UniProtKB/TrEMBL annotation:
Residues 172-259 form the DEAD/DEAH-box helicase domain. PANTHER family: ANTIVIRAL INNATE IMMUNE RESPONSE RECEPTOR RIG-I, HELICASE WITH DEATH DOMAIN-RELATED. GO terms for molecular function: ATP binding; nucleic acid binding. Pfam families: DEAD. Signal peptide: none annotated. GO terms for cellular component: cytoplasm. This is DCL1 protein.
Length: 261
């Protein structure tokens, strides 16, 4: 895919997909798992309200927008049909992806919906019997994805690795795998934007709260807006009592709420 203005290569076609939000609303977007590649050729400007402009680094012309309209308000980068050249086929302003995606050469591009927005579901991996001998059940539930190399004996009971009952949201296989491995060892989780790092953190906080009911969990962010955004997300995903503290609201009432929690 090239920039319509300067013909700079912006992305590989393998990094793109058509997101069918509805029958009439179709976006050409960066695959969520390939979001990291965007920063090599494009820049996401500061969002104006809910929409952020994405520009080509070579010519500073707008080629896309970052919109928070994916599943569960997940942001995605959608390309304007008349701002990019895909598969050597330039399009005009009146041509829409909803129509063009049905024709060649665009039919070669993967199609995703809300159910497949984050890609095909990964197959679950079972743990060899030798890894589960210490557990009463002797088997790992199919809903839990574990790395066979991980020492799951760090938990006294298999239930400690279960995410069930911690949230009403159904985690995706890679989120479950990250959650399980974070329980077993210190781990830095890196997902592309919008792929659910906060849910993994929320699951960990909820599990740690059950294992240590008299202790407090700490979620640190680097910007004030994220204090309220992530606090709201954790409150929504779990039944934890969340106290949001930052320089903007560090009052006696907030400190009292923090002590009471």
């Amino acid at each position: 895919m090239e920039c319509y203005g300067c013909k700079t290569c912006l992305a590989k076609v393998d990094h793109l997909c058509f997101y069918h939000k509805s029958e009439r609303e179709v976006h050409l977007i960066f695959r969520p798992e390939c979001r990291y590649a965007l920063d090599k050729t494009m820049t996401v400007q500061e969002p104006a309200k809910k929409k952020a402009k994405v520009i080509c680094r070579s010519c500073n012309i707008g080629v896309a927008s970052e919109l928070p309209f994916g599943p569960s308000s997940t942001p995605f980068v959608g390309f304007a049909a008349d701002s990019v050249v895909v598969l050597a086929t330039p399009l005009g302003k009146k041509q829409k992806w909803a129509e063009m995606c049905r024709h060649e050469p665009f039919r070669r591009i993967e199609v995703r919906t809300d159910d497949t927005f984050f890609g095909p579901k990964a197959s679950t991996a079972s743990v060899p019997p030798s890894e589960t001998d210490s557990f009463a059940s002797g088997q790992v539930p199919e809903t839990v994805v574990m790395n066979p190399k991980m020492d799951v004996r760090l938990a006294a009971q298999l239930e400690e690795f279960s995410w069930h009952g911690l949230t009403d949201t159904l985690p995706r296989p890679y989120q479950i795998e990250a959650f399980v491995e974070c329980l077993a060892r210190d781990l830095l989780v890196i997902f592309p934007t919008g792929c659910g790092k906060t849910l993994v953190a929320a699951l960990l906080l909820a599990r740690m709260a059950r294992l240590n009911p008299n202790r407090m969990g700490l979620f640190i962010v680097d910007r004030v807006p994220l204090v309220f955004q992530q606090g709201a997300a954790i409150s929504m995903e779990t039944q934890l009592k969340v106290c949001r503290v930052c320089g903007e609201n560090k009052t006696k009432a907030t400190m009292r709420e923090l002590k009471e929690s």
